[in-house]
Amino acid sequence: DSAPASPLLHNLNPEQLAAVTLPAGHALILAGAGSGKTRVLTTRIAWLLQTGQASPGGILAVTFTNKAAKEMVARLSAMLPVNVRGMWIGTFHGLCNRLLRAHHKLAGLPSTFQILDTQDQLSAVKRLCKQHGVDEERFPPKQLVWFIAGCKEEGMRPQDVPVRDQDTQKKVEIYQLYEQQCQREGVVDFGELMLRSYELLRDNDPVRAHYQRRFSHILVDEFQDTNRLQYAWLKQLAGDTEDGRLATHGSVIAVGDDDQSIYAFRGARVGNMQDFVREFGVKQTIKLEENYRSFSNILDCANALIAHNQGRLGKNLRTQQGPGEPVRIYEAATDLNEAQWLVDEIKSLVKNGEIERREIAVLYRSNAQSRVIESQLFNAGVPYRVYGGLRFFERAEIKHALAYLRLLENPHDDTSFMRVVNFPPRGIGARTLEQLQDAAREAGCSLHDAVSTLSGRAGANLTAFVARIDVLREGTQGANLRSIIGQVLEASGLVEHYRNDKEGADRLENLDELINAAESFVTQEGFGRDAVALPLDEQRAAPPLTQSPASQGLDASLPMAEAGELIDQDTGETLSPLAAFLTHAALEAGDNQAQAGQDAVQLMTVHASKGLEFDCVFIGGLEEGLFPHENAMSDHQGLEEERRLMYVAITRARKRLYISHSQTRLLHGQTRYNVRSRFFDELPEGALKWLTPQRSGFGSFAPFPGAARGYFTPAGGGFGHKSEVFASPPVPERKGGAAHGLRPGMAVFHNKFGEGKVLAIEGAGDDARAQVNFPRHGTKWLALAVAKLTVVE
Ligand code: ATP
Ligand code: MG
After folding, report:
1. Whose CA is nearest to atom 9 of ligand 1?
2. What residue stretches are annotated with the UvrD-like helicase ATP-binding domain (predicted)?
3. What's the predicted TM-score (pTM) here?
C-alpha cells in the first residue's frame, strides 16, 4: 500500500475516520462506552504526526490516569517510529508538574519543590491545627483538607473565598496559614499543582503565548470528569479570549461520555462539555454509536439502565456482535457465600480454558467489600491482584525512606522533617518538638533552621539529627540514585531499626523494593544515557517561535520537546535523578499500580475501572445502601451518579457479565440485612439469566438466622430505604493458611515476588515456613500464615 496514512486508518468506521482526520479546529467527540473514543484519540495523534501536520513537541494529550498515559505512549510507539518521549502525554497533575518544574521561578517555587500526597497533606494540616490551637472537634483536619481542595478546584485563593459565617471565616484563615506553611516548606499538594500552573499561565503573557503557539494540538480524554479549574487551565493553553470567544492558534479535541461522569464528588462538571461547545465555538460534534467492546446482552443492560437517568446529552449504542451469553444474576445468603460462589465460578471459567485469569475483573462499589473476596480467592489458591489498595509508595516504611530522601533535596520540608526527626527513635520527645515548632514560628523559618536556637540536651539531639542529614547530603553528591538510596537507608538507621523489629522482615523487603523501583525508574526515564539529538525532519516540523522573549529563556527551540524531561527554563538545569524520582513517587502514589502480564484476577473499585475492559466482569454487592451507596441515595443527583457508576461497571465487560447481591453483609463490624438494589429492576429481563430463584421486589428473603429471630422488619413498600443496620454477634473469620497443603517441588505464586518453586517446608500450623526460590528475587523463607502464597496449577 503506497498511501502512507492508510494503514493507520484501517479498521475505523466512517464516524471514527471522520474524527481521526478532522481538519484543525475544535471538536467534541461525545460517545458512549466502548465506542472507540480512546482509540480515536490515539490514532489521531499518530495520524497528525505521520502526515506532518504536527511534530511530537506540538502535541499535548491529557489522560485520566498515569496508566492510560503509558498505554497511549506504548500504542503510539507501536504505530509509528517517532520520538514519543518528547510528547506531553500525561495526567493533568503530571503535565502541571512539568510546567511548574520548567518555570518554577515564575511560579514562585523553589527548584526542589516536592509534592505532598493526600496523607502528607493531612498530616501537614494536623500539624498546623496543633500549632495554632484549632479545635479539631469543630474543624476536623480531614474536612479542612476537603475544604482547601475544594477551594483550589474552584480556582479560589483564601482572599477569593466568600465568607458567610464564622466557621467559614475560620476555615479560610486555616487555608491561608496552610498556604504559608507549604510555601515556607517548598511543597505543593495536588490541588496546588493545578492551581499554581493555571496562575502561571494566566499571569505570564510570554509563557502563555509560548505554550499556546507550541501546542497546536490539544487532546483530552474523559473530558466529562474535568473540573472547573482543569477546564480553565485548558482554556489558557488553547488561546486568549476575544469578545467572549477564544481566539486560538491550535485545536482542542475533547472526548467524553456524559453517562460516565463519576467524579462529581471531586468537583467534576459535566457542564464543561456544554461550556466547551459554546466558548470554543465548536462546530463539530461527532457521535460514535457503534460499540466494539461488548456483546448485545451486556450492552442492552447498560442502555436500559442508563435510560433511567434524566438530562442526558443523548446518544445510542449498538453493536454488531450477537447477543452472546446472558448476563448472569446471583443472589447469595451472605457475603461469604457470594464470595465463595464467585471464586467457584472463576475457577471453572479458567479451568475450562474459556478465559484467562487476567481477563477477569471483580468490581465493587466500596473498598471494604474486597476483604472477604480476597480471603476466598486466597483460600482457593487463585492468584489475584488488588488495584489501588495501599499503594507501594504509601506504605509507612517507604514514606519514612522518602522523607529522608526529600530532606536531602530540601531541608526545609517540614512535613518530612516531622515524619523522621524521631524515627527511628532517637530520644527527641514531643515537648522538644513543640519547642522547636514554636521557635520556627516565631522566627518565621523552617524547623531545620530553628534547630540552632534550641539549647541543652534537646538541642543537642536535634543538632545531631540535622548534622546527620547534612553529612548524608554532602556524602551522596555525585552518587547514582541506587547508591544514594542505599546510603540513606543505612545511615538513617531505618535498616537497623527494621532488622531489630520482629515483624520488620516485610518492611526490609519493601525497602529493597524501593531500590528496585528507583532502578527501573532510572532505566525508563533514561537518566545517565547519552542525550539523543532529534532527527532533522522533526526539528523542521517544529512550529516557529516568532516572538518568544529571550529573557524568559523560551527561545531555545523547544528544549523540552527534545529531552522529554523536566528542565528549568531559566537555567537549563534538569532535575536530579533523585528529585525526579521523588516526584514520580508522589504522582504515582495517587494512581493504580498495574502489573501487566501477570496472570491474576483483577480486583478494583468501579471508579478505578474507568476506561478499562475485560473479557469477564463480576459486579458484587448490588444492594440498596451499598450500590447505590447510602450517602448518595437521598438526593436525585447522587442517585444518578450511582447509576452512571453502574453503567461504567457494566460496560467494562466484553463477553461475560455477572451481577450479584447478598441478603446479609458484614460491613464495618456489623451485619446488615439488605434489600437488593433497585438497579436490578432497571435491567431488561430478556438479557438476564437468574442463577438463583428470582424473587420479586424486596423483603422476600430466604430464611436466615437474623430473620428467624425477628431482627428484620421491612421498612415499608417501595425502594429508597436504607438497609437496616443491626449489631450482631461477630461472625468468626476464616483464617487463611491453616492447612497450607504445600509440598517441595510445587509451583507457587506470591503477590510481590511472582511465581516460584517451593524448596522446603518447616514447622506446622501457624509456624509453618516455606523456603521458596523466585527466579527474579532469589530464595526466601516465608511464614505461611503471613505470606500470601497460592499454588499454581
Ligand atoms: P470507554 O468509554 O470505556 O473509555 P472508549 O470509547 O474509549 O471506551 P475504546 O477503549 O477506545 O473505547 O475502544 C473499545 C474497544 O473497541 C477497544 O478494544 C478498541 O480496540 C475496540 N475498537 C474500537 N474501534 C474499533 C473498530 N473500528 N474496529 C474494531 N475494534 C475497535
Ligand atoms: Mg476510553
Report:
1. 36
2. 10-295
3. 0.73
